[in-house]
Design goal:
It comes from Dioscorea zingiberensis. By secondary structure, this protein is mostly helical. 77% of the residues lie in helices and 0% in strands. The protein is rod-shaped. The model has no long low-confidence stretch (mean pLDDT 83).
Amino acid sequence: MALPGPYSGVSTLAFVARASAFTFGVVYGSMKLSYLLAKAKSHKKAEAQGHH
């Protein structure tokens, strides 16, 4: 059995690894974004209450 070349695109493991990394990145990014938006919203609210 011949080993596939480095860029043959045949390796299932490489494909699964890339797909997993991509999925993890999308999930992590959306969680991080929602956290930052919530943090910014509460910061604006606290700032608005502080001025009155």
